[in-house]
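As promised in the previous annual report, we have extended the structural survey to additional targets. Below is the entry for ATP-binding cassette domain-containing protein.
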Amino acid sequence: MLLQLKNIFKWVNSGGQRIFLLKDINLSMAEGEFISIMGPSGSGKSTLLNVIGMLDTFDEGEYHFLNESVHALKEKHRSNLYKEYIGFVFQSYHLLDDLTVYENLEMPLLYKKLKGPVRKAMVGDMLDRFGIVGKKDLFPAQLSGGQQQLVGVARALIAKPKLILADEPTGNLNSQQGEEIMKLFKKLNEEDGVTIIQVTHSEKNAAYGSRIISLLDGRKIAD
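The corresponding structure token record, generated without further manual editing, is:
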């Protein structure tokens, strides 16, 4: 089992009342799965993704990831865990504007303290694989949305994470670019065994997953 959420609650206090963002979420996921999380705006999709990605804490429940009890870890240990095993792909790309494509890709490898020649080989491999060798010295602002998202996916993958978390990864792309990104995810999942959780509004994109989880008002209503 890659991860397990048990009875997860997350709330905010507003005017003396508890407003639940997540209510009693239970979820188990094996390595190699591809899960799509769906639901209307405000249903808790991104919150759930952030909890799974350890970017967000929760108020009650247990979270186990690769035999680690995330709910019991100190922040530094938790941050090491997600840097080691989790790659993020965001709707708004989150590339660093003042770094070139090459430098953006190299960033996660610097966290891992890999030596220069190793980094160079890994970045070269990704540039090749995504067909963006010619773009390596450009800055994000010089790329199209589709190209920026490709770089975002390449950066998420470069450190060989066990889990990719994608939040509306095709949200800012035209339909052809979006389809290319989804096919890429499918391929990574089927050929490389990468485990993927995506949040999406699109039925078509959700169908790329092998499981669809539906949320409503912070609750899981279908799996």
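Residues 51 and 57 are 6 Å apart (CA to CA). The chain has a mean pLDDT of 92. These points will be discussed at the next consortium meeting with the crystallography subgroup.
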